[in-house]
Design brief:
Blueprint lengths: L3 H14 L6 H14 L10 H17 L3 H21 L10 H17 L5 H9 L7 H9 L12
Helix pairs in contact: 1-5, 2-3, 2-4, 3-4, 4-5
């Protein structure tokens, strides 16, 4: 159960937040990842590294105000930070010894949803029903969000 529940929480988070209309959904998620970046700041036990990590995630969250890809990156950064704290023995919730592990399992689920564009539950179902040949645009959208790629003429697409 200690592995299944956090994944369920990540799914529930995505489903609940998918009820918020765009662009508010993206902006709210950027705020959430910024808050998650500061979760350990008062007792994570890594000293100045806690402040440096918070600054990094704050920048990524700021970029996430306009980009689902950056929000996904922020959740993956937080996943890595959760793993560090779990291994170090500094849990997110002091009385919940596996809380950092749980967070490290939950956050990638949220990141996957963000990399898919933070779609509403209805949009996710609609895309899941499409033929596989129509789903390639998800990768294209993520590349475009990161600045695109240069085509043969040197222009970004």
């Amino acid at each position: 159960m200690r592995y299944v529940v956090p994944i369920g929480i990540g799914i529930a988070y995505a489903l609940l937040l998918s009820l918020v209309r765009e662009p508010h959904r993206r902006r709210l998620n950027a705020l959430m990842v910024a808050g998650a970046g500061a979760a350990y700041i008062s007792g994570g036990g890594l000293g100045g590294a806690e402040l440096a990590f918070t600054a990094l995630v704050t920048y990524v969250a700021y970029r996430g105000l306009e980009s689902w890809t950056f929000i996904g990156i922020g959740w993956l950064l937080h996943t890595a930070w959760d793993i560090v704290h779990h291994l170090k023995g500094s849990p997110l919730i002091p009385f919940g010894l596996d809380s950092s592990l749980g967070c490290a399992l939950c956050d990638p689920v949220i990141a996957l949803w963000c990399f898919a564009g933070g779609l509403s539950a209805r949009e996710l179902l609609r895309r899941a029903r499409r033929p596989a040949t129509d789903r390639g645009h998800l990768v294209h959208d993520s590349v475009r969000a990161l600045g695109g790629v240069k085509n043969a003429n040197g222009f970004r697409s």
